[in-house]
Amino acid sequence: MNFLKKIIVLSILMSPNIVNADFFEDISNKIVNNPKRLSYGISVADIDQNEKYEFIVTGFGYPNLALSYDKGKLINVVGQKIFSDEFRKTIGVAACDVDRDGYEEIYFLNTDTYSGAKKYSDRLIDFEGNKFLDMFEIEKNKKELNLTAGRSVACVDRKGNGEYGLYVSNYGGPTRFYEIEDNKIKDKSADLNLDKVTGGRAVVSGHILTDRSDIFAANERGANFLLKNNNGFFEDVAFDYRVDDVIQNGRGTTLSDILYRGRLDIISGNWQGYHRAYVLRDNQFKDIGNIKFDKPSRIRTIISADFDNDGYDEVFMNNIAEPNKLFRIKENGIFEEIILQTGLEPGGFGTGAAVADIDGDGILELLVSRGESKEQPLTLYKAKVKKDSKYLRVKPLNKYGAPARGATVTLITDQRKHSKTIDAGSGYLCQMEPVAHYGIRKNEKNFKLEVKWTNGKKKLINISELNKTITIKQK
Amino acid sequence: MKKIFNILVLVIVILFNFNSFAEEKNYHKELITDWSRIFPDQNRNAAGPKFFKYIIDKKITYKDFVEFNKLYCAVSGSLIDPDSEPDFLFVNESETDMKICGNYYKCCIPCSCDIMKYSKVQKMKYKFVDGIKEFFVFTIKNPCNKNDFPNRVNKDYFCDGKKINDKQVYNLNDQIVIGLLHDGRNCNKDEIDYVKSHQVTGRYCELRNNTPLENLDAGMGDIFIKLAR
Predict the structure, then answer these.
(1) Chain A nearest CA to B15, separation (Å)
(2) Residues B166, B81, B225, B173: is their CA dihedral positive or negative?
(3) pLDDT tens-digit profile of B79-137?
(4) Which of A181, A192, B4, B204 is the most buried (most CB within 10 A)?
(5) Total H helices, total E strands in chain B
(6) Per 3-state DSSP, what percentage of chain A is helix, strand, and coil (rounded to 5)?
(7) Which positions in chain B touch A15 (Cβ < 8 Å)?
(8) What is the number of alpha carbons within 13 Å of residue A98 lying toward its C-beta?
(9) pTM for the full model?
(10) Is the CB of residue B13 less than 8 Å away from at least one CB of chain A?
(11) Is A4 within 8 Å of B6 when comparing Cβ atoms?
């Protein structure tokens, strides 16, 4: 009998990489006034300079929203037309401090056509004196309007000096790269050799190859770009690094430390194609995704984050008109599937998703937007977390006092060296909160933090206290 | 007795779990990953031979070789869905003119007709990591002297001047190998009758193969035919 017991225990221990307990709790009822609508990209930023983050949810023929947490509820706090702008059909969104005033501006990427020329341009929203204004509507900026259909937009501090530019991933027209120069918006894509025509889908920026902000753009009907930063100029090395993936159609993309080794690798989903978990080895990226992870699906946004505060990141795959998926990244790059019950959304038309600890309790909330061919309400989830779980949140600010989008935070302990990017946007249409969120592992000790700024310089600090958000300012 | 039963259960549990852990090789994903290496200029028109050469140059087992060769169309150069079913057909052997039967994985129906009419098969021997194996391959004549070499095909893939480009495609007795005939063997009478009466390899192919070249608008059209005839 004892022997049989041992067999049963052994069988459980050796069972395949699937976890079955219900992972998420549905807290969508916290969203006040949550009608069916067509929503796309989501960003997380402080839109009104009150030191609280909001979920910025784009609307496609519906108003853009800014959902703020107040008294246990998420409520839209913006009604100004220039922001809500329901007629321009917004799909992509990213925020960063392009004008160096210490506060983030919001880039709304509008797309009223699938590809090529579009009718309505994008907006770059600034907040001044309690009012939102579109910087593109200022006369001197009008000649630089983006009138090509696009999908995603990312903030890139290419020179490492806190002067963010905006990489606009267009579809059927040249990529744009906007910077503020001489107090004017200027498209510098041609100067930087970035004005390539492709089916732009996703774009991320961070420390991928160098100590500066590199760019990875996942494209459709053409090769991906891996743009290596060389003193603020870019060279496409996607073919050499084996991430060009020419005959697949890129979608959700995120930077993730897949091997917990203190560097950012790339997770890139492909529309009805193989999803990639690219890990850099010997100057080439190797795809280490297993057969469950890489299985083709109707993928949209992909998020890598520690939802349940266990110290291991999960990968959330938001599919459209197909069930969502969740994986835990175990040691050595093993992707363990977590079978979703809540959050599965088999009939959900997922178009985007983002995470933030919007209620400040040390656990991430996951907001999922839905729409495209069917109006659906937003959904909000939170992982069921063990009562004794611990966390550490790190919020780096650059020398202007703005979120240091594109910086890398690394948690160093006796158990791991775990890097996270401060999300520059917009893996696929979406951008996460500008905070590195870490759950803490069992019996973990000797905590240190390293911040690598966008100029490549590093700052190391010892951590003596957990369960808090640490703000680190660049000198 | 009880001890034997327990050991048996243990073996079954371990085997079951071992299978669950084993990652099956994903041949299709590997070809997709390497596509830009196989076709640096992104022109895969009629470039089945490029796939064949790329695959046979890998250090792989015979099983891997067979599986990889199910995933591209020898006529068009297209990748094929991993769940595709082959057509059973015959092609004449170049040396003996005997009919050799086997399975052909194609991207679309007209390619089965084109391969039956415009290619030959040869027996080939090759040393894989698990030993020497013998199998039938589809071949076409050296096209490098043609005046009407199809301009939508990258000639550099096939030719080094008037010779076959051995670095890019596999040269077997001065013929270009374009793909693998799966389960190839000498046909028996029943098999020949089956192929001839089949609605694709029989009736449809008869119609296609009697259509003038300039009127072909299905499959690769005239590209492969111009290359192979």
Answers:
(1) 11
(2) positive
(3) 999 999 999 999 999 999 999 999 999 999 999 999 999 999 999 999 999 999 999 99
(4) A192
(5) 9, 8
(6) 5, 45, 45
(7) 17, 20
(8) 28
(9) 0.92
(10) yes
(11) yes
